[in-house]
Amino acid sequence: MCLIRGRAGAKTSWLPDMRSLASFFLALILTCHPSAGRSHVLFIAVDDLNDWIGCLGGHPQALTPNIDRLAARGILFTNAHCVASACNPSRAAVFSGRRPVVTGVWSNQSGSLARCYPQARLLSTTFAGSGYDTLGAGKLLHSQGGKSYGEYFGVNQRWSPLSKEAVRYTRKELPTKATDNPRHLVADSLGREATLPLNRMPSDRKPAQADGESFDWGGWDVPDVDFGDTKITDWAIGKLKEVRKRPLFLAVGYYRPHIPLWAPKRFFERFQGDPGKLPAAKEGDLDDLGTVGRRWARRAVTAGSHATVIKHGQWQKAVEAYLACTSYVDHEIGRLLAALDQSESGENTWIIMWSDHGWHLGEKEHWGKWTGWERSTRVPLIVVPPRAQAGKFAGGGSRCQQPVSLLDLYPTLDELCKLKVPGVLDGRSLGPLLRQPSRPTGRVVTTTFDRGNVSLRSDRWRYIRYADGEEELYDLTVDPNEWSNLSGLPEHADTRARFSALITGRQ
Q1: Cα 171 to the center of its chain, rounded Å
Q2: What's the maximum distance between 2 C-alpha atoms anywhere in the chain?
Q3: CA dist., res. 427 & res. 285, Å (int)
């Protein structure tokens, strides 16, 4: 307000200064707007990443300095598990907040979430409805997931510098695929001839499928930017540099280390003087399993078979390739985080990094995902609070050992970002554990691997029941590799019965 005087200088009346009044009301509107002062979210999804990262200690040669620094900034959940141990059902659960028994997305063959459960309220859609700009890049949700974002960036070079069409074998070439002289030649980014596959192994999974993007591994002597994951990072970095009036939800989905285990050659070079160390394995590991368990382990469902890998002497090379691909995605995550820190959003952004499921590299004589064992279900999960809110949550480098589920991500973001979530969510918020990671919960989390196959994980036990009723029970405090199936021992009958009783409604 200002004092308005008449022509003679006498006081006449108190009238509002319209400019001051406008400024006051503008500030009031901005303060009351639902997006004012709200935190941004960087949501990082990694494909097929198990616990072979430095901060989880899953492999002695894991080289993931950027992921490790991220864990040192926030809370690392050391006992986090996927909802389903394959890409499609796991991601459907994360982005819908509902279990497979609700969505009908049980496997990679179930069809998309949009087809099976069209009424799903996707996480990105909820953010948009809550006043956020929503941006997505790369592999997030199977089939049409990009349409739920305000902006979406996809790549055709998903796992290689070439398009999927470029690495496909012709019917005439297919018989030579697993020989020492495969006839499939393609041009790389520099116009040079490249031969695929790089491991000279036959395809156990789909031997008649003329698709080079299969169970292969090796380094490509091409620039990083030829790979889709680098393109995804570049796009996301560009978006972080943009000035925004609304809070940002940025979901970035990396394709590595999904098979084929291809990455820029430089990430393989460190193994020349330090060959890949094989994971822990036990001869006769499957002897104490039932018929279904043994069949599940040895089937080439999502990758190749252990027998073929051993026959062709490729176990060590596969380990090196997986570690190399993991280092490559770590490098890209590092670039992304550096750009975030340099942006105007850096001080006020929640960072959540997760993997859709784990991956076997010969453990339990299995290659790939899609089992109920620890190697398939356990995933990296890191939550980093905004620096501006750091005092409200546990300090950087905190570790939570309580069992949690990827199903918890949606309700967690609902709480932290004050979203307008319509309907029911099946998980529970991790908010209490972000504040007090050591808080005991007594929780048991569930992973499914197709309809009727259920794996339960507590702080101590792993219980698996197959669709035909066959059971497995492991005490992970003394048997972290799940080598001793205790389900048939009388002294563990009560424990087995207790977990069995929990199965109903958990699928």
Answers
A1: 35
A2: 106
A3: 34
Neighbours of 371 (CB within 10 A): 28
CB-CB contact of 260 with 47 (8 Å): no
Q: How far out from the chain centre does Cα 54 lie?
A: 16
Task: List the beta bridge partners of residue 305.
Answer: none
At residue 68, does pLDDT exceed 60? yes
What's the Cα-to-Cα distance from 300 to each of 51, 110, 204, 315, 370, rounded to whole Å? 22, 18, 6, 15, 10
Classify residue 24 by its DSSP letter. Answer: H
Distances from the Cα of 29 to the Cα of 22, 26, 35, angstroms: 10, 5, 11
Helix (H) / strand (E) containing 187: strand 185-187
This prediction has a pTM of: 0.91
| pLDDT digit string, tens, across residues 244-277 | 999 999 999 999 999 999 999 999 999 999 999 9
* Contact status, residue 300 vs residue 204, Cβ threshold 8 Å: yes
Provide the b/e sequence for 134-150 (b: ≥16 CB within 10 Å). bbbbbbbbbeebbebbe
**pLDDT band, very low/low/confident/very high, at 21 (cuts 50, 70, 90):** very low
Tokens representing 482?
Answer: 């799940």
Which amino acid would we find at residue 162? L
The answer to whether 103 and 92 are in contact (CB under 8 A) is yes
> What are the tens digits of pLDDT across the range 463-490?
999 999 999 999 999 999 999 999 999 9
Residues 313 and 299: their CA atoms lie apart, in Å, by 19
CA–CA separation, 466 and 464 (whole Å)? 7
CB 410 within 8 A of CB 90: no
* Helix orientation angle between 315-342 and 228-240, rounded to the nearest 10 degrees: 10
Amino acid identity, position 23: S
Q: What are the pLDDT digits (tens) for 103-162?
A: 999 999 999 999 999 999 999 999 999 999 999 999 999 876 688 999 999 998 777 888
Distance (Å, rounded) from C-alpha 178 to C-alpha 197?
A: 8
Identity of the amino acid at 104: G
Over the stretch 392-427, which tens digit does the pLDDT of each residue have? 999 999 999 999 999 999 999 999 999 999 889 999
450 and 110 Cβ atoms separated by less than 8 Å = no
What pLDDT sits at residue 506?
Answer: 63
Cα end-to-end span (Å), the chain: 64
- Reduce the secondary structure of 394-430 to three states and give it as a string: CCCCEEECCCEEHHHHHHHHHHHHCCCCCCCCCCCCC
Tokens of 283: 């001869």
- What is the rounded CA–CA span in Å between residue 93 and residue 75? 22
